[in-house]
Structures are given as structure tokens and as C-alpha cells.
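Quick check before the chapter quiz. The format below is the same one you will see on the exam, so make sure you can read both the input and the output lines.
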Amino acid sequence: MTIFRKALCTFAFATLAIGTIAAAPQKAAATEQDTLVVGTMWEALPLAMQPRRSRFFNESEILDTLVKLDYDLNTVPGLATSWERISPTVWHFNLRENVVFHDGTKLDAGAVKFSLERVIALLPYAADLLNIKQMSATAPLVLEIETNEPFAALPNQLTDAITGIYAKASFNDAGEFVKPVGTGPWKFEEYRKQDRTIVTRFDGYWGEKPALSKVEYRFIPDHNSRTLALEAGEVDFIDNMLPSDVARLSRDENFKVYSKPIAGLYYGAFNAGDKSPLSDVRIRQAVNALVDRDLIVKGALDGIGEPAWEFFGPQFDWAPKADAPFKLDTDLATSLLNDAGYQQNEGKWEKDGKPLTLRILSYSSRTEMPAITEALAALLNQNGIATDVQMYTWEGMLDLVKRGEYDISVVFWTPEMTGHPDLHLKSQFHSKAGLNYQFWNNAGFDEAVDTGRTLSPGAEKDEAYRKAMNILHDDAPIIPLVHKVSVGASAKDVEGYRIHPSGFFYDFKSVSKD
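Here is the expected output.
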């Protein structure tokens, strides 16, 4: 893998691009006709239940959720055919008839209750996500859920992959997770560590049966190698492509390239604690005013992405927006930095003779992450703010972030993933959120988010979230950078694939090979 720097447009700053120049490989023998071989960036880890990895159970549809999201991110029936809020804190979910798990046991309200209780016990993140006080099976196919407070977001939260419904056979006698046994169109078949995970068609599936008999997920973490594997005929489909490969494969009639904006945001999380100069809101606002997101997308990503001047993607009309998005304004940035006590000396911002330097951390496993991080740093350098960029594994970066040893951590999240703003605003930015490592808290924001999650759609809910977004904009604990555009490619004989806007759903049951 080669790292090189290039100029962006007419601006004198550098950005990171990753790529290798290689001759197209010779076409290898085709994969089996009834099997889809998928090259993935992440290892599936089907025997692990941690929050990120358990998303594979939903991506691959080993597990079903009670509620699903359609291709417009509207809630639609899953294992629950309908749901009703019968009081401010009580919901009834009517379950689908004649559904069986992969081990042949029947799905009923008791089985769903058991599964959700296991998920909450084993994954603490799920407890806050679902806000459940208690559950009961009021009839064989009716599950009653009582929440701790009025919680209108519950159906949307039950679309999250973490809430997939497991059979009791998924756990041992001690209640520990063993393997995924679900009700989905695919059942877990085999796992080879650091190599592949195989799922096979479940002929007892309650919905339309898959056309293919098997899907094989091959772990290919190197971004170049995934594309080369597709070109060699070793895999049928790849995701998370390098921007340079998108243009090349788009010109090749042997492949299909897929591209669509999805729920996903690359952003810089600011350390608002005492260890960082970004504890000063004026500097946080100045950084937002100095960084040209359009240049990041054009120069660092070859146009594959949407400039992020606000938190939620513009394609989601249900998502709350601040009254005014961020904008490029160097005069405003100058005024803010001067007000914070900084002066420019030979183009560099200094205070008391010390340069303003920001330590930027990120991780390299995501395809676009190094390029976005380096472009952010280059733009800040160009505007007189020194940077120290350090790339880690996700775990390595997170360890430093938790200790407050950073100024900006460039991360990727999917804030629109459940079709409701509560998922991200509550779990990431609320002062009591377990994932809030930014040392930022704002009582007004907490109150607005706590109120918004209780309200059904309407003017009152919209106003609560508008208030939350205005605080997030004005207090600026983040810098939105790029809204994700998902890109993937397949061999030309693959039919029926569509990119789902949630970012966590392949829908390979609808795919065939011609």
C-alpha cells in the first residue's frame, strides 16, 4: 500500500490517498453459480456478540428484528406485524404467525422476551437504546413492553441490529452467547478465523426464500486487495471501495458499480475537556468556520461523498436540522480566534508565544478515513493551525480518547441508522451517555433530547429536536466533515442488489446470479 500526497484544486495543501498501481489480474475460475462470495472490510466474527460485530447478524439476515426499515428508512413489519402504543409507557407488539427459528423451535412472545432480556443483559449499550422497564407475554403472539418513561422512539430502536431476535439455542446454560440462531433467510454454517464466514439458505424462512443457496463472506481488510479479488473472479461482490477504484471499474463492462448516499457521517469529535484548547467554544467554532468540506470531498475522495455542513444527511427529511448549517467563513474564524486571545505570527496562530496545535487521532481500517483525516489536518495547517496527526487501530485510538489525550478524534457513525434522531444524539452527546468521551455536557441539550424521545411525530417533537440541533451547532462539540456515499461493485452476472440507506443491511436474499 502506497501513501502519497497531492494538491487539491488550486490550494496548497496535501491530502492522503491510498492506492497501488497494478496490472489487472488474470481472470480466475468463476465462483459457484448458487453461491455469492462477498469480500468485506470487517471480519464477520459470527461467534462474537459485541455491538459492532453483532451488526453482521442483521447485515447478513441471520437474525430478524421485530421492526424493519424499508429503502426510505420508514418502519415496516419484521417479526412484528403491527405495534400500538396503548399508554405513554406501554406498547403492544403483535408477532408474525408460523415463524420458526433455524433449530426448529417456534417464535412466540416468550421467545422474543427471552431474547431481548439476554441482549440487554449482555450488551449494556442496548439497555439505554431500548429504555425498557419490563416485558410480558400477554398472549402467545403479543409482547407487551413497558418503558421507563414515555418513549416514542421504541419501534425505531427495535430496527437496530443489536435487537435481533435470538433463539434460546444461541446461548449456553450459563446464559453466555454461543452462536447466532435466528429466524432469518440465512442460517449460520461455518466460521474460519481471519478468513471467512459462511451462511446457507434457510428453507423454513417465513418470507420469500433466497434465490441463492449460500453466501460466503471473505475477510479482506486491505482495500486494494478486495478490488483485485473481484477482478480476479475470486469474489462476486465487494464493498467499501477506494475512490480511485470506483472510476476504473465503472468503465469496465465486466463489473457493476453501486453508489448511493446512506446513513453515515465522518466527523471530528472535539475534546471539550480541560486538557485541550478546544475546551474554548470559540476555537471549536473557528475550526468549523475554517474547514472547506467541499474541498475534502473533491480533493481527498474524488467526489465520492457529500460535504457535511450539518450533522444529519440532507436526504433524510425526517432528520432534525439546526436553523443554520455551518459555513466556510474565514473572517468569522479570525474574529473568534482573536477574541480567544490568539494572534497570527507569520501566518500561524499563537497565544503567549505558543502555537495553537491540535492533536488529531483517527484509525485506518475504514476506507476513506486516512484521506479525510489528512485533508482536515492540511486545511487547518493552511489556515495557520498546526496539527499532529496520529493513526491507530480503532481500539488504540479509543483508549487515548477515553483518557482525554487528544484534541480531535475523526470517527464514523451512522446517526440516521434507525430512522430516528434519538439513537445518536442520546448515545453519543448526552452528558450521561456511555459513549460520550468528549467531556462535553450541556444541560439544555440533555433536556431537549430527553424530551424529544418521549414525543410522537408532530410539531412538539420537531421543536424539541430543533432546539437540540441548534445547541449542537452553537456549542460545536463536533465538526461534521463528510456524509457517507456507499460504493460497492459486483461481477456483471450479479442481479438484484440495492444499497440500503441504513448502511447495515445487504438484502442478499433478493440477489441472484445470471
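If your answer matched, good. The chain is about 25% helix and 30% strand.
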